[in-house]
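Quick one from the shared queue. A colleague (R.T.) flagged ERF family protein as missing a structural entry in our internal table.

Convert sequence to structure tokens.
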Amino acid sequence: MKVNGNPEGISELIKALLAVQHEVKNPIATSENPYFKSKYAPLDQIVDLLRPLLTKNGLIMAQEVLSNSSQEISIVTYLFHTNGCWLEFGPVTANPQRTRVQVGVDEERKPIYETTDEVSVQTIGSTISYLRRYALLSLFNMAATSEDDDAESTMPEHQTVSNALLIANPKRISFVLTLAKEVGLNEEQIRTMVEKKYNVPLEKLNNEQVDALINYLRSKKQERSL
């Protein structure tokens, strides 16, 4: 996070941000995510909760979409105060899922898929929406809550934002390399396998892809122990 401006103006900006965080309510997780079988708070609901409080405290919010040659998408969130000072939060980055196509079947008649370099417009749009939600929830210290018919008598359950599309932590990548070694794959072999399957370097895998890779390596490890 970066803050720009003179000390007095920055102090006013931080006070305004604190006021918004203090007053804003948590959004309700009403939208269904069939892939992860979970619910999440939609972007429009989060923005509707924030907009009047931002105006009330002299703040203007903007979110910039960035991309690079690796097709990663990033969101940078800016918070401007009427005194001219501003805050920069991010970037928050994700690697959109590539398009998978069936290229045949194996000996057990199970489909064989290959990942192409293509990323659909729908995938790009959903990734941008996800990153915008994630950034706003983080910046304003919000958490999606479950629907509750009697909120005054029942504590709502907090739901953390899924991080499946975010680029995996380096520690998880190190764990993949360790696990690969245990099943007889050296670093070059696992990197080649990853790039062939996902069309991105090992360090650019998102959490969902790393989960799938870990599960695959663990199954191989179990086979070796039989």
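The beta strands are 2-4, 31-33, 38-40, 59-67, 73-81, 86-94, 100-105, 111-115, 144-145, 158-159.
The chain has two domains: 2-159, 170-225.
Added to the table.
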